[in-house]
Design brief:
single chain, alpha/beta, Metallo-beta-lactamase, Chain A, globular, binds nickel (II) ion, binds manganese (II) ion
């Protein structure tokens, strides 16, 4: 089964696993780098790392139009259901997971904050593990600082990691290199950079350092660009 990963810019991804269409953190409206439209993008599942507006993004509209099932923490998924009219949700918490038709989705810890767009409490921020039935494992770190417990995630045989590199709101380049050392992914896609001025980053320098200082393969995508796993 082919796994196609498309970067929507910022922390947003479309992950196609066979016939199953997943979105992660689909922030399109108000995102100056977005190339996809929230009116046409397809989704069977939407996975959310935390409650901030640049991650929840267009989830309410996309979920209601497509009927997609949202997987997020208890507060974020519960808020989408109670206040946004999203019908199908899984309300996880860190360390917990759910079996879905393409594999296992589990929330990890992340060190960040998490309030919802209307100011409601958004629970704990998360990273997302996708352990596919085929045996390919993906780790989307969400917004986070680097943390030592990433070594536990590194024991899950990660084929692809998506890591923030923008600094200011999350770890920057130095932190991401440390995270790669802990997570040991075969390939790594940088995210959460260049969307706004405070997170401008030299991604060429990042890729050179990943090549020189780690065993991972850096995969730099343009918004709308894809990587086959
Ligand atoms: Ni955030
Ligand atoms: Mn963010």
């Amino acid at each position: 089964m082919t796994i196609q990963v498309t970067w929507l810019s910022h922390s947003g991804f479309q992950v196609q696993i066979g016939d199953h269409k997943l979105l992660i953190d689909p922030f399109l409206t108000g995102n100056p780098l977005a190339t996809a439209s929230p009116d046409t993008i397809e989704a069977d599942f939407i996975l959310l790392s935390h409650g901030h507006g640049d991650h929840v993004g267009d989830t309410p509209a996309i979920a209601k139009r497509t009927g997609a099932t949202v997987v997020a923490n208890n507060e974020v998924a519960g808020w989408l259901q109670a206040t946004q009219g999203v019908e199908n949700v899984h309300t996880l918490n860190p360390g917990g997971g759910v079996a879905l038709p393409f594999g296992w989705v589990e929330l990890t810890i992340a060190h960040h904050s998490s309030s919802l767009p209307d100011g409601s409490y958004g629970g704990q921020p998360n990273g997302i593990l996708i352990l596919t039935t085929e045996g390919k494992n993906i780790y989307h770190a969400g917004d986070t600082a680097v943390f030592l417990d990433m070594q536990l995630i590194g024991e899950r045989n990660i084929d692809l990691a998506m890591l923030p590199i923008g600094d200011y709101f999350t770890m920057g380049i130095d932190g991401s290199l440390k995270a790669i050392e802990f997570v040991k992914p075969k390939a790594v896609i940088p995210m959460h950079y260049n969307t706004f001025d405070p997170i401008a980053q030299d991604v060429v320098e990042w890729a050179q350092r990943v090549n020189n200082e780690t065993a991972a393969k850096p995969v730099v995508l343009d918004p709308g660009g894809s990587f086959q796993l």
